[in-house]
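Thread: Newbie trying to understand structure tokens

Hi all, I'm a second-year student working on a class project, and my supervisor (Dr. K.) asked me to get a predicted structure for one chain before our next meeting. I've only ever worked with sequences, so writing a 3D structure as a token string is new to me. If someone could post the tokens and maybe explain what I'm looking at, I'd be very grateful. Here's the chain:
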Amino acid sequence: MKLSQRLAAISQQINQHYQDIWDCCCDHGLLGADLVKRNSADCVHFVDSVPQICLQLEQQLQRYLPYSSSSLTAPWQVHCQDVAQLKLSENDNQLVIIAGVGGELCIQLLKGILVHNHTVDFELIICPVHYQYELRQFLLSNRFGLIDEQLIEENQRYYEILHLSTTANSPISQIGDAMWDLSKPEHKAYLNKTIAHYRRMDGKMTHPALRAYETLQEKNLLDNS
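---
Reply by user tm_fold:
Sure, no problem. This is what the structure looks like when written as tokens:
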């Protein structure tokens, strides 16, 4: 099956060879299968906590991406487990991918991964469905630095793709920096939609994200006035 625009954008972020790639919450495994076919890693690990998903995925992989049992290293493995309990290899060149789940769940999963791998450096590609501001705050305060970020639109929904590393020195912006191109209508639409969301939120205290996004909007208006 052809990759969606979102998954294709994530795949394009992967332009080097890794020893291990961990495709977490992998669902149908389309992204991981693409990475196996591209020989992007010595081993692509498919990780999901739903037994039925893992069983069906393993059957599909054995059918379409078979490998000899005599191989010294398998090009893929399926792991039925909680991503928060993931134990990465001590090898260099580890990439963890978490995509297609909410930002709150991303934070819970990453808390577990960091606890179980506190001595391991790794790269992370993350693409949350929502709760991006709070997720960025968590990432900023937990070892991660920015490699790249991208904003894409797919089926009238917007996705922030962050490529990070525990060894990168560039700080993570709380609302994004490199991903914005406000000359593009879809970027303006996403910014306006995000501001409207925070303005609708209940409570006596203004959400700190609102002022940050409004400042970005005001700067863009001034730059184009």
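A couple of things are worth pointing out once you decode it. The radius of gyration is 19 Å. Residues 5-175 form a domain with the Rossmann fold fold (CATH 3.40.50.150). Feel free to ask follow-ups in this thread.
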